[in-house]
Write a structure and sequence with these properties.
The complex is a heterodimer of chains A (about 110) and B (about 120). Chain A starts with 8 loop residues before the first strand and ends with a strand. Chain A contains no helices and 9 strands. By secondary structure, chain A is mainly beta. In chain A, strand 7 (about 85-95) and strand 8 form a beta hairpin. In chain A, the strands form 2 sheets. In chain A, strands 1, 3, 4, 7, 8 and 9 form a 6-stranded mixed β-sheet that branches. In chain A, strands 2-6-5 form a 3-stranded antiparallel β-sheet, with no helix packed on it. With about 120 residues, chain B is mostly beta strands. Chain B is globular. The chains are: A mainly beta (about 110), B mainly beta (about 120). Chains A and B meet through strand 3, strand 7 and strand 8 of A and strand 5 and strand 10 of B.
Chain lengths: ~110, ~120
C-alpha cells in the first residue's frame, strides 16, 4: 500500500491561506469518509486537526478546514499564524487498514 | 484525561524482535468503542501506520508489515503491546501508541519512543 501523496512543502505569509492536498486512490481517499489530518511538531506527539474529512475537534481553531473531492482530500489553513508552522499529515481508512500521507511542511514566511 | 506511555528497549539488534508496550491511563483498554494502534516515524520520513487491536483481540495490520507484526492486549495491566520480528535498520523509528476512535482517527497519542536497530 503506497502512502498518500502530499506536496513536500507549502508556504505563506501571516494572514494568508494555504491549502495542502492529499491524493489517494479509489481504494482509500476516494471511498473513505474517514480522512483525518494531523499537525506534527518535531519531537512532539501528532495532534488531530480534522477528522471525518471536515470535522474539527474541540479546541482546534476554525482557521483549519478539511474537504474532499474524488480521490483528493485537502486541508486549508486560513489566516496563517506563526504557530501553524509544522508538518502536516493526512490519513485515510483503506478498507481493513490505514494509510498516512507523505507529509507536508508548512512554512510561515 | 487519557494518557498513553510507550516503554521498551531503545536499541535492538538486527534480525531480533522489537518489543514495545503502551500503558494506558484515564480510560479502560476494554472500552468497546476503541481500537489501540501503533504508528511509527523513521528518521527524516513520514508517519507510518503499523496496526491496531481491539481488546477482544481483533486486529488489523499494514499489509507490508503483517508477516512480522504481533499485537496483543493485557487487560489486567491496561496495556497493549507491539512485537516486530526480524528487524533491520529500516525499522529504526520513533514509535507512537495511540487510540483509534469510532471515526477512525487518532485523538490521543503517547510521546513516542525512539527505537534504533543496530548491532
Amino acid at each position: 500500500q503506497s502512502a498518500l501523496t502530499q506536496p513536500r512543502s507549502v508556504s505563506g505569509s501571516p494572514g494568508q491561506s494555504v491549502t495542502i492536498s492529499c491524493t489517494g486512490t479509489s481504494s482509500d481517499v476516494g471511498v473513505s469518509n474517514y480522512v483525518s489530518w494531523y499537525q506534527h511538531h518535531p519531537g512532539k506527539a501528532p495532534k488531530l486537526m480534522v477528522y471525518d474529512v471536515s470535522k474539527r475537534p474541540s479546541g482546534v481553531p476554525d482557521r483549519f478546514s478539511g474537504s474532499k473531492s474524488g480521490n483528493t482530500a485537502s486541508l486549508t489553513i486560513s489566516g496563517l499564524q506563526a504557530e501553524d508552522e509544522a508538518d502536516y499529515y493526512c490519513c485515510s481508512h483503506a478498507g481493513s487498514f490505514y494509510v498516512f500521507g507523505t507529509g507536508t511542511k508548512v512554512t510561515v514566511l | 484525561q487519557l494518557q498513553l506511555q510507550e516503554s521498551g528497549p531503545g536499541l535492538v539488534k538486527p534480525s531480533e524482535t522489537l518489543s514495545l508496550t503502551c500503558t494506558v491511563s484515564g480510560d479502560s483498554i476494554t472500552n468497546n468503542f476503541y481500537y489501540w494502534a501503533w504508528v511509527r516515524q523513521p528518521p527524516g520520513k513520514g508517519l507510518e501506520w503499523i496496526g491496531s487491536i481491539h481488546y477482544t483481540g481483533r486486529s488489523y495490520f499494514d499489509p507490508s508489515l503483517r508477516s512480522r507484526v504481533t499485537l496483543s492486549v493485557d487487560t489486567s495491566k491496561n496495556q497493549f503491546s507491539l512485537k516486530l520480528r526480524s528487524v533491520t535498520a529500516a525499522d529504526t523509528a520513533v514509535y507512537y501508541c495511540t487510540r483509534e476512535t469510532e471515526s477512525s482517527s487518532y485523538w490521543s497519542w503517547g510521546q513516542g519512543t525512539l527505537v534504533t536497530v543496530s548491532s
